[in-house]
Amino acid sequence: MQERDVDVAIIGAGTAGLSAWQTARQYSDEVVLIEAGEPGTTCARVGCMPSKLLIAAAESAHQAREAVGFGIRIGDLGIDGKAVMARVRRQRDAFVESVLDSMQRIEPRNRIKGHARFEAPHTLRVGDDLRLHARTIIIATGSRPHRPDALHPAGDRLVDSDGVFEWEDLPESVAVFGPGIVGLELGQALARLGVRLRMFGKSGSLGPFGDQALRDYAERAFNDEFYLDPAAQIETIARDGDQVAITFIERDSGQRLTERFDYLLAATGRRPNLDRLDLENAGLALDDKGVPFYNRFTMQCRRADGEGDDGHIFIAGDASQELPLLHEANQQGRIAGHNAGRYPERRAGRRSTPLSIAFTDPQMATVGLSRDEAADRFGCDGVAEGGASFEDQGRAVVMRQNRGLMRLYAEHGSGQFLGAELFGPRVEHIAHLLAWALEQKMGIERMLEMPFYHPVLEEGLRSALRDLNSTLLQGPAMTERCLEYGPGG
Ligand SMILES: Cc1cc2nc3c(=O)[nH]c(=O)nc-3n(C[C@H](O)[C@H](O)[C@H](O)COP(=O)(O)OP(=O)(O)OC[C@H]3O[C@@H](n4cnc5c(N)ncnc54)[C@H](O)[C@@H]3O)c2cc1C
Ligand SMILES: NC(=O)c1ccc[n+]([C@@H]2O[C@H](COP(=O)([O-])OP(=O)(O)OC[C@H]3O[C@@H](n4cnc5c(N)ncnc54)[C@H](O)[C@@H]3O)[C@@H](O)[C@H]2O)c1
Questions:
Q1: Which of 17, 146, 313, 419 has the fewest beta carbons closer than 10 A?
Q2: Is 42 in the pocket of ligand 2 (CB under 6 A)?
Q3: pLDDT category, 36, cuts 50, 70, 90?
Q4: Domain contains 260
């Protein structure tokens, strides 16, 4: 058994692990990055990038179909599934390659291949042949798709998001289980690429929305394109020839139907990769799901033997189960890297405004506090709500993308902006403006003083802000758009 002493050992070479390495390396030459699987990060291999590549192809098909609404005839639409998947995989490989290139900056002796697990609080066993003694350790092991037992009867026809990007051709049909962000992004893209699709959820949840009005609106909008039942009644799932047969109660007719699909796509959430780390040897306090308690400003895990969070083990990225998003993994990795590098000194890192965007059409986004979180913090009477529809918004009408709704929350009295849920065309941009406004701690009146061009989608945001301002009793209600701001403004 080879033994080695290091200053910082980072488990997992994903986005969080790489950003942790980059920062911890500023403090020591002895910072090792351990990777058990294929390097290249979840984001580039099976996450953000390949999913957006599939969505881009689907958008193109959708625009071609929609062109007729502008008086433009394109003729018969042909979708070459093999070519679509070839481009997805080719571009995906290029993104992975760029990550691998940047990893070359890490000295080979500090890149360790193998599965790491704890033998003791300061000792990691990597594979069969290496034992590492580390002054500090960062857990950046990411997450993996969860496949509930109920879906296992689908056998080898059961895939998850990792499997989709290995397809060499588009299937004829897919049943998607889970209308979360992964299910909606991939499901809508597949439907737009001509795949026969049904989407089944459980308990009524839909994407990231907490606001019932947005959930209802989004459910209707998606159902215009493909079958979606967020609270589905599934009776049986069985392997049938080369397919999977699903018996379910159809949402509107109440009929019992049995349909066959090429694949059952499990988009039923993700679980942190903490179960094979032998965390019981790490001396950490764990919650009932086995996730370490940690301080979100230092990313320092709490020791099992005390109340404090002053241990030498840190956590970052999807493994922390806080907000499984790329920019969060990056930020958490940076904080963990700095604190592990300069341990035992520690500093609180900066955590930015919560921001999440689903690349569906219309897009879904959440910023800052949800309505329930705002009510918990300020009391129900302390929170004002306002909103606007995209249905009559000028620029959205021009583009034939006038579907969607915005809900904004602010604090009564101060007029402080608190958060928003958005469903609408390209709301990724409005979500960023709102996140930046939150970072600046802006009030609704000040946000209304910002410039708004004409005609742009952001004028819809102005309508929502006006509505919220009048609920706050800080300004007049919006009466008629055109009179004040020009058509649709
Ligand atoms: C389909 C999909 C689409 C997504 N789209 C977006 C998006 O558009 N925008 C966005 O912000 N986020 C998106 N995400 C989420 C985003 O990809 C993740 O939040 C992010 O990649 C997490 O990074 P990470 O470093 O925590 O984990 P990872 O990149 O998964 O890295 C963890 C690494 O640890 C390794 N590892 C695990 N256990 C061990 C061990 N014991 N020993 C050694 N190595 C180990 C793993 O092999 C892995 O390489 C998407 C996710 C999915 C699945
Ligand atoms: N655009 C993005 O930023 C993006 C894209 C994809 C993923 N992500 C990240 O990945 C995380 C995981 O996404 P996800 O969609 O896999 O998980 P999720 O937890 O958001 O959604 C899972 C969905 O599956 C449903 N579900 C659970 N068990 C089920 C069952 N047996 N049958 C039917 N439905 C079931 C849940 O009710 C929920 O609606 C997200 O929270 C997000 O942070 C981000």
A1: 146
A2: no
A3: very high
A4: yes
Distance (Å, rounded) from C-alpha 139 to C-alpha 320? 9
Say how many Å lie between the CA of residue 368 and the centre of ligand 2. Answer: 19
Both 263 and 283 in one domain: the answer is no
pLDDT tens across 479-488, in order?
666 667 777 7
Q: Which amino acid is present at 231?
A: A
Distance 247 CA to ligand 2 centre (A): 23
Q: What is the residue range of 40's domain?
A: 2-145+271-342
How remote is the CA of residue 142 from the centroid of ligand 1, in Å? Answer: 5
Alpha carbon of 264 to ligand 1 centroid (Å)? 22
Contact between 114 and 34 under an 8 Å Cβ cutoff? The reply is yes
Q: Are residues 424 and 362 in the same domain?
A: yes
Q: Is residue 314 located within the same domain as residue 458?
A: no
Last residue of a domain, one of 216, 248, 269: 269
CB distance 35 to ligand 1 below 6 Å: yes
138 plus 153 within the same structural domain: no
pLDDT in tens, 53-64: 999 999 999 999
Say whether the ipTM exceeds 0.90: yes
pLDDT for 308 beyond 70: no
Cis ω for the linkage preceding 362 (within 30 of 0): yes
- Closest residue by Cα to atom 30, ligand 1, is 142
Q: What is the CATH number of the domain that holds 370?
A: 3.30.390.30
